[in-house]
TrEMBL record:
The keyword Transmembrane applies. Keywords: Membrane, Transmembrane, Transmembrane helix. The chain crosses the membrane at residues 7-24, 30-49, 69-93, 105-125, 137-158. It comes from Absicoccus porci. This is Rod shape-determining protein MreD. It comes from the Bacteria.
Length: 188
């Protein structure tokens, strides 16, 4: 997949995150059940885990900077967590297996960490007074269920995008071979 297509897809996922939060805002009073979407983060993880480690880290930093600046306004958080998660997931897949089960577990683990780490930091600094169990039931539980369904949808979308990219590349190679044969036969 081309880099331009990758970044356009990530931008669309970030806009979809923002739209979901705008339509169904999280309830930080913990009176109702909420969902905090991380579609852009999940798409980033699924798109860069096969690349080499420096590409994963640089794409994570760039995506984290853009996400922090335009979507979240929590400057250092995503800029640090996105590349760390990209590196960690890629390392896990390299060391363990390139199986979809490990990829799914690693992606969901990174998504859960993306929610739990800010909660723990906020709890340590006294910004949140709610208990972990109440936070988990009111925010994280529906988020996990939503992301399990979103993970399946992202697998399908990325697979379709890869197939289209491969087909386009094959068609381009076939046209180049055809042109080469035509030029070669014309010269005889």
């Amino acid at each position: 997949m081309k880099l331009r297509t990758l970044f356009v897809f990530l931008l669309i996922m970030a806009l979809l995150d923002t739209l979901i939060v705008y339509i169904w805002p999280p309830d930080f009073t913990f009176q109702a059940i909420s969902c905090v979407p991380h579609l852009c983060f999940m798409a980033l993880l699924l798109l860069v885990y096969k690349r080499n480690w420096i590409d994963r880290v640089l794409m994570g930093i760039l995506c984290g900077l853009i996400y922090d600046y335009f979507f979240l306004s929590t400057f250092p958080l995503s800029t640090i967590l996105f590349p760390a998660a990209c590196f960690g997931l890629g390392w896990l897949i390299e060391k363990v297996s390139d199986d979809v089960r490990w990829l799914s577990l690693g992606t969901m683990g990174c998504v859960i960490l993306l929610d739990i780490l800010p909660f723990i930091v906020s709890k340590l600094f006294g910004q949140v007074t709610v208990s972990f169990s109440r936070w988990f039931v009111h925010v994280e539980l529906l988020t996990i269920v939503f992301h399990c369904a979103a993970l399946l949808a992202l697998y399908y979308i990325i697979d379709v995008m890869d197939r289209i990219s491969t087909r386009h590349s094959n068609q381009k190679n076939a046209m180049e071979k055809k042109n080469y044969r035509r030029i070669r036969s014309f010269g005889k």
